[in-house]
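Service request form, structural biology core

Requester: graduate student, group of Dr. S.
Request type: structure prediction, single chain
Budget code: on file
Notes: please return the result as structure tokens.

Sequence provided:
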Amino acid sequence: MKPAIFLGLVALPFTICAQPPQTIDVRKLSAQSKLIDQVVVPVPSEIFAVLDKLGKPNWTAVLHKTPSVAQAPAEQPRIALMLGSVIAEGFIAVEAEDVNEVKQIGKSVLNLTKALGVQKKAQMRAKAITDAAEAKDWAGVRKQLDKALDDVSDQMVELNSEELSQLVSLGGWLRGTEALTAVVEKQYSKDGAELLHQPLLLDYFEKRLANMKPKLKLNPLIIKVQKGVLEIRPLMGLPEGSAISEKSVKEIGAISAALVKAINSKSEN
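Core staff response, request fulfilled:
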């Protein structure tokens, strides 16, 4: 079985250009990439380094600007999903070269990591993100966002919070997928839609959600997210060589957008 490219938060799946490549050769990515359950997980900055050479869509139009710094809700599963979504937004803000939004996101990351008890290195990382953005050192911002992901993952493992760490990744993947579909819809092509062909990644998320502890599985937001992932799976899991239709791209976008909205909602229900 051929490994799938994890272009979610831990490698955002929203990279596209006017004439996107049919494939990305993951063998050319560095040794930092990981293979988890046959899913190739390169770090986000590596993905952008490859795609920088391929042209840029209108990232400003894709960006979800936030009017204020994210405040942590009461329940940890929502915080974890929100953190993933916010960091994913950070990578989009970098592509849009929006200094103020990157700085805002840095503060949001600090708030959310503190609420999860994994703020040990977040304060230093948030300052580094802000300093790099002010200097318009976009490569530096990417690097710090990568490190923020590593910090969160490592600290969650230390705290035996692996399931929350997986939710961080899922939250980022959903926001990245929403962004990718928005760009593909602007100028649909079979090659562009092929970047959404990620059946192994969906299998990975399905398995992780199905095996979570009962308390998490009964959380209303987790139930909603799990249902959404199951709805997206057949739309992305067509047989190899089959084109994902423009209609399917819109459906994937609508489902992922609804889930991202639910994740970032102030409601706890």
